[in-house]
Structures
1.
Amino acid sequence: MTCSTPSKKYLEILSRKSVRLSKPTPKLIVLDLNSTLLHRSKKKRTRGTLRPYLKEFLQYLFDSTEGTSENFDFSVMVWSSARPQTVDALVDKAFGRYRSRLVAIWSRKKFGLNEHAYHRKVSVIKDLETVWDELNRHHNNHDGSSSESLNDGIYTSITFSPSTTPRSVPSTNNIIEMLPQAIDLDTINNTSSHIWDQTNTILIDDSPSKAVLQPYNAIHLLPFDSPRRQLAKDKELLNIIKYLEFLKYQDNISAYMKEHAYVSTEFNQEIAEKMN
Ligand SMILES: [Mg+2]
């Protein structure tokens, strides 16, 4: 790993105060899988327990503005440090019919690890510059009019989408099964015309260490781990919906989140109890 502090450019844009807009603007949501949306089984890595309120969370991300006059969209992608085959299975489990609405599905292959590190438990950083480079380049090269690889080697299904908005795309009709050797899944469902950057991107990941390069673009929710799985009261995904309701109006996500970081309400309560 070369550098693990935010770039000068990041800090410069971070210093520009966010303005609350009268209407929401499109935002890119980068979702982690394990301990964020589900708890992955230790024995069978491709199995997992879904986090409470995941259904509501996905409905919010994908359907909340459907049929409304709000000119607003979340573009949603997955980036997990698990291997492609695991990611593929977990995305199926977590997203179901929403899978085809993801703008990209990224796995361990996108960390630029060498062969040795790829197969070992090493710490990784989700550098959002990689996301921005690739998604924006895709848009510039193709003007949103053709299928192009935005996925990284997940091979179960491949989706060809028309250049219409994802809302009009049937979620299952255009999936073609591919053989495992047909690496580089080509899925692009959202032909967004937006340039993604730190002003409009939100990483949702339970691990702060993965977000050190763009620390103020990340929501760190409480990990949905083994002990937490036993708790019926886990409401992190509902809490995040409430937080996103504020974020969607902001014109500089990084600056806003620096000033108003996401804090679990449950965590607030713990702090309050200690203070009393
Ligand atoms: Mg995680």
Note: The first strand starts at residue 27 and ends at 31.
2.
Amino acid sequence: MKKIEVEKHDNNYEFDLVCIGGGSGGLACALKAVELGAKVACIDPQRGAAGIYTNAGITYKKQMHQACLLGKDIRHAAYYGWNICSARKRSINWRKLISSIENATEDVAKEDDRMKYIKFFNGFGSFVDAHSVKIKLINNEELLVTGKHILVATGTQPVYPKIPGSLEYGITSDEFFSLPSPPTGKTLCVGGGVVCMEIAGILNGLNFNVTVMARSEVLRGFDQEMVKLVMKDMTSRGVAFLQHCFPKSIALTRCKRLIVTYNNNQKNNAEEFRIFDRVIWAIGRRALLDDINISAINPALNDSEIIVNEYEETTVPNVYAIGDITSGRPKLFSVAVAAGDLLAQRLFSGAGRTMNYENVARRIFTPLEYSFVGLTEEEAEERFDRSGIQIHHGYYEPLELALTHHCTNFCYMKVIAKCDEHYPILGMHITGPNAGEIMQGFSVAINSGLTLHKLFATVGVCATNAQNFTQLFNKKN
Ligand SMILES: Cc1cc2nc3c(=O)[nH]c(=O)nc-3n(C[C@H](O)[C@H](O)[C@H](O)COP(=O)(O)OP(=O)(O)OC[C@H]3O[C@@H](n4cnc5c(N)ncnc54)[C@H](O)[C@@H]3O)c2cc1C
């Protein structure tokens, strides 16, 4: 193995920081570290700096969601007096959509000026010891680098179920967003989590047939009242749900379609089958710890996730972990980026601030968008008991849907407060257009100590959906 020749910067290590994984979190940490004058190596098999491209992955999703909204707008435009002659015959040009997103992604991928100060290694990193990392470059060459600090930010990979035909006939979200040909025919999305529901929503919004299969409840862990609205809306648009079902096998039929056999828990585990043209697995993701030879350093683990403390330190000195590979952290792009940035600040500028993992706002790009910040009703009840919380709620009719009345039955908002002096707000939830954009502002407010009294004392912005929160006087029993 060749040892790389670089000038020594600190102690006896070639680098101040070696990042294994240059995705969302790893790259954010590397960028902040070089900005603060550290000497940084970043190892990633994807084009040297994958963070920009994983960010672009989220861009794919948002643009596809936007394509769905536009399709709906074309239909709705007629209500506003537009003459849309062929609205009924509208169809999506999948290849055009993918190529437009690809072109836009090139713009997202424009290099950050700080990138040139990072030493990139296009390959896979694995531990030799707590200060040394072996790099297997894409061209199969091997190198060894040493670092004073090592960061693990290798994220997770999609999981395939261990059933016959799952690998041969199924794809994952990683492949879905760049499918070369349109997903015509019938698609089965298996999972029921965020990724599954978003892909199902996109397929439906682009006029493709889709069924969701989930082993238990859909969007488990989210506020179930809100989830029911999201599901009702999707069902009303034509998405089929097979709940409490799990696949047993997939096989190819003579006409090259897929026969999916599954057990239906709602019918005494009866075996049933259906025919599809495509199966998308969205049943979860898992860190590949063996690939980074984690046993060479042996940090404390929780299943396949690395346990870290509030400083993102693993149980091995000088080895840190951030992002999806860590245990008990929200698996979100912005969380990984913020954690990486703050870690670099603590390591190289003496800053002390740690990451606040509480009250991170989320949004789901289902056809009826859902966004929230803070506790779900279930969590609030568990922590403070029903008598310890006060809930305000109500349906609202977005003005932008007033002429079409489309999906207005499911536009709903809810505020959960603690029964205390001033009623501090524990959680806010909304389904409806631009839900995430609305929640961004309220998440700042909640993180700054928003109370029910302050919310109701705020004058809303006229003719917006967000203003309904300031007039949500109706209490839930
Ligand atoms: C389909 C999908 C949609 C999502 N949508 C959203 C969203 O809308 N909003 C949101 O906030 N989050 C979203 N996420 C989650 C978000 O992408 C992750 O939480 C975030 O990217 C985690 O960052 P990370 O740095 O831990 O891992 P990643 O960004 O996944 O980066 C890990 C990097 O490590 C590299 N790597 C792996 N093994 C090695 C190795 N041995 N050596 C070197 N490098 C290695 C990989 O190539 C990769 O570049 C989505 C995720 C998926 C799968």
Note: The chain has three domains: 15-55+102-155+288-349, 159-283, 368-474.
